[in-house]
Amino acid sequence: MNYQPSQARVDSSKGAHEPFTADDAGRIQTLLRKKLGPEHVSTRQGMGNSRLSYVEGWRIISIANEIFGFDGWSSSIQSFGIDYMDMADGGRYSIGATCVMRITLRDGTFREDVG
Fold this sequence. Notes:
Elements: E1 9-10, H1 22-33, E2 42-45, E3 51-54, H2 57-68, E4 73-87, E5 93-105, E6 109-114
Antiparallel strand pairs: 1-6, 2-3, 4-5, 5-6
């Protein structure tokens, strides 16, 4: 799949949007510039002896609610597909999937990316 992440843009086709105030925009910019602390990052065993780092979904939702407000953003799945599914020795499966998500702010600005 050849996917290019979108630049942030505004969707004007979805009715009325509520713009952020100048104070809100400044506060949001300040919070978004902060680095995510190590207390937010979890790890798990990967293939072989590797360790995988990730941020849990509930934590991302909590951070977004703190920054944008609980009703200041939304998410939607734009597409989802299985890229491959292989059965390995011992009956274990290896599955790869691709999901394109869209995050939309209350002012209509949105960003899409793949994971």
